[in-house]
Records
---
Amino acid sequence: MRTNILKRNLWITFFVLPGLLLVAVFIILPLFLSMFNSLYHWDGLVRTRFVGVQNFINIFFNFPYNERFFNAIKHNIIWFVLTMVFQNCTGLVFGYLLSKKIWGHTLYRRIFFIPAIFSIVAVGFLWTLYLNPQFGIINKTLKSLGLQQFALPWLGDTRLATPTIIAVNIWRWLGFPTLVFLAGINSIPESSLEAAYLDGAGETSIFFRIVIPLIVPSITIITILTLIGSLNVFEQVYVMEGVAGGPFYSTDTLGTLFYRTAFGAVDTGRPEIGIGSAIGVVIYILTFLASAIAAILLRKREVEQ
Amino acid sequence: MIFDLRYKEINTSGKIIYIVFEIILIAYAILIILPLINMFISSFKSSREIFLTPYSLPETLRIENYINVWGTGRFGRYFFNSVIVTGISISLTLLFGSMAAFGIARYRYKLSMLIFLIFLSGIMLPLKAAIIPLFLLLKKLGLLNTLLSLILVYTAMSLPSTVFILSGFMRGLPWDLDDAARIDGCNDFQIYWRIILPLTRQALVIVTIYNAIPVWNDFFFPLVFIQNDHLKTLPLGMTVFFGQYQTDWGLLFSALSIAIVPMIVLYILLSKQFVQGLTAGAIK
């Protein structure tokens, strides 16, 4: 009996160990090291002395770190808000229309999802070419339609650059919330809709009073994923505006700021690993908090309904 | 269903709204397809043609654009590296992930929940934010500037979701399977390999796509780990290429087509699996 249990435990170890080791060494260990590193002063790649929360104080209160940090986080918030309003609300409407089997719905479903499989790098470069102020097809088309005043330097204007990159990202990703909402709506029990129709409820009130409350789980998931995505924006900005989040830091995000700080800042020229780790830890904590709060808030709504 | 919108059965104001929505959907579909068609057409043009006649078909099919990108632009190399890295890391993910899922789901013991939670914790952590210690760790191990660094990190990154999805699937299989196989003299590895694994085939397809697309498309880790141009993967190689050939738009569109068109072909062939795979985390 004892040898049997030993044998069983050896088998379990054999099955679980390789995966567990990889996850422990390459995911969990770096997380803890990140927190540890953020409490030290670094000279290049060498850890020198313990400074407590000084790195965090620097990014929150001391110039120039605080200015860069709050400028970056402002853009992460803009990413979240614009993505929620334009991408996810459109996705909800599209998902609803597709669930009503509007003419051509299977084709739309297939087409809308296509760009989601492309790399951010390819999509970013493709639209950088199209949005080029002189040679890009967007401004050429606008000019040939007589709309010169709208042929703007999309990626070169400090006010337009962030919304433009977000629009490109929506182009890539809109199919995702559309399909998630479609699946959510399709799983609504037919009886609840039937009852509303028989009571003579109109389309609009069915959408807001029945459909929306019943797909709160899908809304929760999309909100959390959008939050996590917005906090971790990096490639989109790096590819379309460069690592400094140009022009004049108008597209800088936590991701690009973190990368510059960790691997040699464009403004100071040398890596600051202590500060970089602190920004990394902030990204971790914000990601975690944001998801937790969103989950709790939406869970509450779910119960109230 | 009685709730489906049928054009004939709705009143006049409903018809107008229906048509407006239909136009919006068509417009959005065009907004997706047209840039892709334009990209593919432009990939056969010279830069001069792209600038002067952006909407027209190419005068001659400049296949040499592709030959230049593939050879001189080293896209052949980048493509090969991406295939190697994605292929090996997904194979390792499927092997170690299904083994771990088996070890968690097909034995009854106290620690199984803890092991499951350790794997699960990896799903919620944005690994990019831990890039500094990861970089220093790989430097210490002498793995910087190797494809192995990418393979190890991608495998670790893909394991949590894989274990999560597969163990859920394996828990649903009847225990009689294991017992019957044991009576027939199978050892535990044979039960895993011959009995359980073939039954999870459908879930393996979903897991493969769920992980392979982000790995194939990843740009961040090669950017940090790989300096040697010979070892760059497709997304990173593309940024090198766009830096070098900024003005030759014919070549740039060919490079984009090399990255994008194979994905579209795969998607057309396997669209159901792609959709299932990519939305696996968000749709039950």
---
Amino acid sequence: VATRGADVTEYSATVPAAGRGHFHGTKAEYRRILWRDMFALVVTLGLYRFWVTNNIRRHLWSRTELAGQQLDYNGDPKELLIGFLVLLVALAPIIIVTAMLGWIAGFVWGGELAIGGLPLGDITPYTVLGLLIPLAVLTLYQARRYRLHHTVFRGLCFRQTGSVWGFVLRSVLWSAVVLATLGFAYPWARADIERYKMRQTWYGDIHGRFEGSGGELFKRGFLIWLVSLILLAPAVPLYVTTARLDAANDPGAIAFLTLLILDVGGVSLVVYPFLRARVVRWRIAGMRFGALSFTSDFSTWKFAKPYFKFYAWLLLIAVVVSLLGVILYLIQAVLLPMLGMAWEVVGVISALVMYFSTATIITFAFQGTVRFETWRLIVDSLVLHGVDQLDRAKSSAGTLSRRDRAGAAINLGGF
Amino acid sequence: MTAQTQGTGVYFDGVSGAPQSVTVTLEHSALAIASPAGALARWDYPAIDALPAPADRLRLGLAGNRSTARIELRDPAFAAAIKQHVGFDSPQRRAGERRRRRLVVAWSAAGVAAMMAIGVTGMPLVAELLAPLIPYAMEIRLGEDTHRAVLAAFDEPGPWECGDEGPMERAGKAAFLKLIRRVEAEAHLPIPIRPFLVRTSEDNAFAGPGGFVYVNNAFILNSGSAEELAGVIGHELGHVVFRHSLKRYLHNLGMAYLVTMIVGDVVTGGGTLFATGTVLNTRYSRANETEADLFGVGLIARLGADIHATARMWDRRAAAEKQELGGFRATSVDSTHPDSAARAAAIRALPNVANPQPILTAEEWQALRQACSRK
């Protein structure tokens, strides 16, 4: 017969689940995972990123408790690697065909054939980019499918159904509209896309939907949009002036260019976290799974703070990398006469290590600041309404079909 | 004190989202899960996985994603008993996990190294094999595209091409064309070249795809004799005959794809290419330069001119480079051309022609030096 300590709280299914989110993780624990994986990532030139993704998700999910029950992530990094390889194979003909097409077009019609004053050969790179953007949107949406399918809550999985092409088409068209209206249409674009996404989302047999409206988001973000538009206005004359001056030789052009970068970069970096905080709160408030709904009241400032920490990291990394660059250059100057051509090998290795270390440190600085702290803030502020709906959820038939698994694994491998 | 063999927990059966209060019993070969209504499941010990969870609880599932059923226990004493019984947290299990992680890292690193090796040795081969399949007409179109990009880079005032601003320029251009045609006649090229005399202070001569050859005015002024210049023109014709520009285009396209493959930098491949591509591509480029050097010297020899003139030019350049860099040799990881001193030595190692003849008359050489004088 079991003996139990009197101080152990009885933990049972009948304890009424508080409808709140709670994050159990600590920064120290999370940092340990990042440090451990950082070295592996650099040594494998980034190929280990699928395992890093898996480790980070397993950790964050398992520390996230919603209404008394935690999430599990049960993805497999090998599936992500295979999905990435599939994407590369799919990408190869696209790259080759577009490269050849531009060439053949130039061959057939001659270099003189131009669209809008641009020779065909000069347009080719943009065609490739035009194909890559929808492809990137597609892989992002497929990555969401994989994430949902491998998120287990109360013994049931989430799911994403339906076609990915509808999402790609919608995103690309809406992006064009948002650009054309200088961002004015963003709230309605976002609402439409969120409705589409949630319509394709399931928890077990409970169908998701999105009830947030574009008008509501517009109200929440209008002031920020207006202020940033006013702050960005000087960028137009600055750009025109810079373009007119001879950038290579005119010190004035460099001054204008610096001002332009400061204006656009500064405004974007400062405004983005505040805008994103509003969008996230609005998305949470609009999300529904049957009778289940959510609210979140995290403070905008607390949400923005990790972004500024990340910017500080970026600044520090830039200073350190520049210093290291100078030191490496001096070392090269000394070692070159001694090593001769063997220097080439040393040079290749140090350039690679330098590049990947920098990229990895930046990524991990982001993970340690923005990713972790905003996640914790959102989870801790979450309130769930209608939790009893979850008791009635059933797993849906064919939750993890083979086709969905294979399709869902297509990814770029970002975390 | 005997280990605790029974405790309570919460069970999700993977079919319903409703939690069930259960009694969990450690049996001989399996974990028995039962509700007051009766037995629910028996999990064999080897099939049980401990899932990541906060420190205050033990969370179990079935290994290999066969089911999403979960059981969670919050009684620390019973959790410890299960851990001990099943062997979670045992040194062997932890060592096993570490070994698996190291294996993944080792295999990934080996995979990356293998891909790099394929890139360095295989890509030049691929470029060599593919280039003959590309018709010359296509290469010429590529050359025209490149030509437009080249023109955009010239920023001297006035017409970029020399030879038409006055009588001295016209005489200079005639000498330039005579020199080029003499060398070209010996080269037996598959396509005619399109030579350009460029008005710029940049000290360079280069060849693009499709027979486009550019000689900059500054390069002519820095040459000591017509033979030196002819050696360099011969070198550029070597690039044309071996289709080096086309091969480099194919080679770099392949390398870009390979690097993308490893790094996954599909959308923003630029930064990666800068770091890795440049370094690996220049290796291939240097091999081409050496090939073109030998071809150029061969042409000069067939013209019966002094081949060591080219070596003298490289010597002079090596000295200038040494001075610029404060005594250090100029070749670095990112240079596409071999070391100037090494090029000079390679040429000097070849036997010179017996009785070298001048390639241009002294008057013609002086005229050529005035081809961009604007007079």
